[in-house]
């Protein structure tokens, strides 16, 4: 399988504090990479670098064989642990907002046929995440799980090739998490995504990922804790393969409890 993303000798330093050092990673197209590691190791920093929110102080990142554009682009979508939806917009409004900003940066508004196409795309994506019946409600009327579904749909509507997930299910109840695991697995397969997910849940890392990376420091200086940065200390390829889904098996369970 070809490499979609290649990180070569990535360092992130804040003054004399080294957060990441010598990170070398090749990420295959279609893989689902789980990233685990101790708190403060630099997992979110690594995601921000891949997203383009932050530039590495050293090293290079290649996307499809070309240098990664320095700014966040539509090829990379992201979902954070805390709901990144706009409270003053309906579900459909949240979906359209991203498209309007991308497709009509000056007006931030789509008109006529463009708007109708955008609404159709947004509704299809809402169906895919199990929110087809919720287009006219506001985030305050949704459970945490539903808001996270909306955040995932917002990220996917721009058709990213890489989906970055930073503790996406960390704030959800266990039952809802299980539903979300099913959903993300289905979306990964149906949309041929490459996913990089940070999680604190080792079980989740192994059950969802095709590869599990541990980010941690290889060396420590007790007198200067920030002298050395973290890197990929374990890198496990799993044999997990997604089975093709049977026709008609497109159902998605939606939590409507509103209590998480
Ligand atoms: N802008 C910044 N300036 C200085 N230090 C920073 C900055 N951003 C992050 N850090 C430091 O980088 C280190 C890694 O932070 P990061 O959030 O990436 O860790 P993490 O592994 O995701 O942690 P957690 O699992 O607790 O979310 C932390 O020590 C943090 O304080």
Automatic annotation (TrEMBL):
Q: Which residues form the ABC transporter domain?
A: 5-242
List, alphabetically, the Gene3D superfamilies matched. P-loop containing nucleotide triphosphate hydrolases
**Pfam families tied to this protein:** ABC_tran (PF00005)
Q: Which spans are transmembrane here? A: none
Q: Which InterPro entries match?
A: AAA+_ATPase (IPR003593), ABC_SmlMolc_Importer (IPR050093), ABC_transporter-like_ATP-bd (IPR003439), ABC_transporter-like_CS (IPR017871), P-loop_NTPase (IPR027417)
The record's annotation in SMART domains points to:
AAA
Q: Which UniProt keywords apply?
A: ATP-binding, Nucleotide-binding, Transport
Task: State the protein's name.
Answer: NitT/TauT family transport system ATP-binding protein
| Provenance organism | Sphingobium fontiphilum
Q: What is the lineage of its organism?
A: Bacteria, Pseudomonadati, Pseudomonadota, Alphaproteobacteria, Sphingomonadales
């Amino acid at each position: 399988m070809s490499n979609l993303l290649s990180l070569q000798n990535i360092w992130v330093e804040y003054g004399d504090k080294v957060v990441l050092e010598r990170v070398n990673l090749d990420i295959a197209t279609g893989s689902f990479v789980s990233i685990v590691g101790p708190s403060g190791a630099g997992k979110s920093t690594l995601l921000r670098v891949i997203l383009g929110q932050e530039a590495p102080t050293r090293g290079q990142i290649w996307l499809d064989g070309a240098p990664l554009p320095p700014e966040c682009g539509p090829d990379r979508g992201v979902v954070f642990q805390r709901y990144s939806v706009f409270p003053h917009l309906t579900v459909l409004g949240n979906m359209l907002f991203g498209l309007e900003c991308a497709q009509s940066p000056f007006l931030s508004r789509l008109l006529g046929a463009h708007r109708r196409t955008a609404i159709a795309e947004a509704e299809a994506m809402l169906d895919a995440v199990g929110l087809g019946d919720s287009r006219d409600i506001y985030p305050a009327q949704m459970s945490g799980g539903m808001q996270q579904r909306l955040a995932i749909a917002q990220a996917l509507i721009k058709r990213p090739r890489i989906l970055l997930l930073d503790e996406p299910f960390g704030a959800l109840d266990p039952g809802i998490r299980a539903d979300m695991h099913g959903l993300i697995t289905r979306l990964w397969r149906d949309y041929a995504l490459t996913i990089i997910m940070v999680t604190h849940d080792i079980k989740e890392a192994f059950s969802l990922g095709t590869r599990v990376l541990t980010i941690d420091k290889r060396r420590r200086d007790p007198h200067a804790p920030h002298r050395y940065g973290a890197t990929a200390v374990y890198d496990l390829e799993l044999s997990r393969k997604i089975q093709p889904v049977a026709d008609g098996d497109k159902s998605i369970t939606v939590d409507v409890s509103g209590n998480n």
